[in-house]
Amino acid sequence: MKIQIPHNRAIELLEARLFDLQNPNTDIKALKDRIKADVQAIFGIATPQSSAAISLDTLHFDDPVKLEKIKLNYKQTLQGFIDYIKDFHIIDKEKVELSEEEYKNKYLSLLKEWNELVPEYNALLKESELLRKNYDDSLSENKILQDKLSHKSIINKEVIKILFLGASPTDENRLRIDQELRDIENRLKMATLRDNFDLKSEWAVTSQSLQQAMLDQHPNIVQFSGHGGIDGIAIEDSLGNAKLIDNDALGSLFELFSDKVECVFLNSCYSESQAKEISKHIPYVIGMKSSVPDEAAIAFSTGFYSALGAGKDFGFAYKMGVLSIKLEGVSGSDIPTMIG
User: Fold this and answer.
1) Residue 314 and residue 308: Cα distance in Å, rounded?
2) Which one, of 8, 6, 4, 34, lies nearest residue 19 by Cα?
3) What 3-state class would DSSP assign to 258?
4) N or C: which end of the chain has fewer CB within 10 A?
């Protein structure tokens, strides 16, 4: 049985219901509906877990003795869900741990890749140092560089708002979007300019929640991670199944927010066509030329945000994302493309 949302978020939801249960002013009938909705969001519709929550006795809420028994049943059920998720997390983590020999082989492979890529990496560092030197040479050169940066990046703003949109419809293959977001969060936390970034996320994105998130968050950078094709990206409908937003609709959406959004990053398969449409309104757009493996998608994201967190512009961050795929030793470094 799969857990549909990040484990920490699932546990927070269920612990909140436990807290509600202990509140003497809580409407138990309403709480039952909230438990049902949360369990369905966590485990999916029509799972044994959600059925168990639905079957909880609701016929004797006016009998104090039976009501206490019902509350106890609720508490045991919720705690059982929480324990299951914690155990599932441990087991899932153990599955991906490398053996000592595998780790050694991977290290040697990455070391070889690194040695082959050192010249390219040094070239990027040299380019960065040249920009820094030109910046310090004179007041006139400093002004020119500032003008360039004002068009190429947003590092001079007090807070850079990033909106991460994730969708993995139940009728499509499951993606490691939660892992991608955790890696991005970790990279930004370790960044030199970490206080300059405000990362917000929206999960199981629908057409309504997408619009509301754009209106509420006023993002400078928007990233979508999920499934896609040549004709559009796949968000979710009210039942959690895939729903396509076509290229024209995406272009129209970002046209409305072109005064704030400076970069759109579509981490989905065959999203180059959507990137071209969005680039009519947004200065910098990143898409994928073909189907992109999970490992390559995550590596590109972490490299991209690591560079932004160090104060680099979008062009440099894109190159660092491509380099990160190569350093991970996985295929797909030729798939990302940047327009702008």
Assistant:
1) 7
2) 34
3) coil
4) N
